[in-house]
Amino acid sequence: MRPRDAAEWEQIVRRYLDPIRAIVEMDKPVVAALHGDTVGGGLGLAMACDIRIAADGIRLGAPFTRIGLAGCDMSTGWFLPRLVGLGTATELMFTGRLVKADEALEIGLVHRVVTPDSFTDELTRWTRRLAAGPPAAHLWTKRAIHRSLGTDMDGEFEFEIFAQVQCLQSADHREGVVAFQEKRSPEFSGD
Fold first, then answer.
1. Is the pTM for the entire model greater than 0.85?
2. What string of H, E and C letters represents the secondary structure of the chain?
3. Across all residues in the chain, what is the average pLDDT?
């Protein structure tokens, strides 16, 4: 945190967002394993992920204002209001208050809270479930979710039509239907 001019700081802060963009732009679902306090930039990285699994007892938050920085650093201004609602995000960003894992679950900041003893098993369960899923369906779902945040209803409906038509033509969709009819788990190939 040594003194720098505005141009140097801008370059550094801009670069902080590169991993956030990379996570959001990945074609596959990304799971965040939160087994320690997740604050500041770590919270930004976690919120960019599609699924967040937290160990019981951890804390999450954006404490930037506590040290004289804007509460919207490293994607917090984008993701936090969308995940927890404007009112809760406003309070957390202005105060820098950290929330415990159980409250994070209650407000929608994480998807699951598990005991530290079962953390690895729960994380493995999620990642295996997602890895076994249909890659193209996950790709179009993820794109639709992020795209919907910046478009109107008709624009999103058009994208949903396009995405579904792509999936309807896939071998994975045909396998999913056959597996459903045969009452077995599908074996997706990514085609």
1. yes
2. CCCCCHHHHHHHHHHHCHHHHHHHHCCCCCEEEECCCEECHHHHHHHHCCEEEEECCCEEECHHHHHCCCCCHHHHHHHHHHHHCHHHHHHHHHHCCCEEHHHHHHHCCCCEEECHHHHHHHHHHHHHHHHCCCHHHHHHHHHHHHHHCCCCHHHHHHHHHHHHHHHHCCHHHHHHHHHHHCCCCCCCCCC
3. 93
Q: What is the mean pLDDT of residues 13-36?
A: 94
Domain residue limits, the chain: 6-131, 135-181
For 40-81, how does the pLDDT look when each residue is reduced to its tens digit (9 = 90+)?
A: 999 999 999 999 999 999 999 999 999 888 888 899 999 999
CATH 2.60.200.20 describes domain 6-131: no
Report d(CA 31, CA 52) in Å as an integer.
6
How confident is the model over 169-186, as a mean pLDDT? 93
Q: Identify the CATH assignment for 135-181 out of 2.40.128, 3.30.2310, 1.10.287, 1.10.12.
A: 1.10.12
Please, which pLDDT band fits residue 150 given cuts at 50, 70 and 90? confident
